[in-house]
Amino acid sequence: VPIRRIVGIDVGVKELLTTSDGIIIKNMKFIDKYEKKIKGLNRWLSRCQKGSKNREKVKKKIQEVYSKLKNARKYFLHKTSKQIVDENDLIVTEKLKINKMVQNKKLSKKIYDASWYELIRQLQYKSKLNGKICYQIDTYYPSSQTCNRCGNINKDVKDLKVRSWECPNCTNINDRDLNASINIMWEGIKAYMNSRNNIELQ
């Protein structure tokens, strides 16, 4: 497949992903949607007598809610990954150390709910099936801190709370997520060109 359409993808907690062409896909927060119902059913379960028919009914209801949550997330991820693969020939994401990231207790539930690992896995295998290319760039590449216009690295914006910043070198105003996705795209293009050059040299 000729490389005509290229996209960089920055994943996040608030927005599931931001693409280098400015598309934002919201995080659907499936756990938040079903959590209240699960908590209510668990309280009901705790009041049921062990071995009773009511207890078994409540257990079944809890399983049904978890199944709905799982299926809703699965459908959403498949729909999202299919759209990205259908619309692009070269897809670039970051290689995330999710096991390390979920150690942050404030973010762990949101990270599990966003299912970044599953989304990237789907992008990879669907790309392969459709003759597309999916690259992952280095974990430590400073995509959010690098100005996509001049390449200057601004270490003052490491804090995730900084959502927009002005480059001290070229005064470009950078939206954190869009800027990161553009930089991810360019790193992917470099990796692709290097791999093509290596093939030609062989």
Question: How would you characterize the overall build of this protein?
Answer:
The chain contains 6 helices and 7 strands. With 202 residues, it is of the alpha/beta class. The strands form 2 sheets. Strands 3-2-1-4-5 form a 5-stranded mixed beta sheet. Strands 6-7 form a two-stranded antiparallel ribbon. A hairpin with a 3-residue loop joins strand 1 and strand 2. Helix 1 packs antiparallel against helix 2 and helix 2 crosses helix 5.
SSE layout:
Elements: E1 6-11, E2 15-19, E3 24-26, H1 30-47, H2 53-87, E4 90-94, H3 98-101, H4 105-114, H5 116-129, E5 133-137, E6 164-166, E7 173-175, H6 176-201
Q: State the secondary-structure class.
A: alpha/beta
Main sheet attributes: strand count, strand direction, barrel closure: 5 strands, mixed
The number of distinct helices, counting runs of at least 4 residues, comes to: 6
Q: Mean pLDDT, as a whole number?
A: 92
Query: Beta-strand percentage?
Result: 5-15%
Span between N and C termini?
21 Å
Quantity of strands, as a count:
7
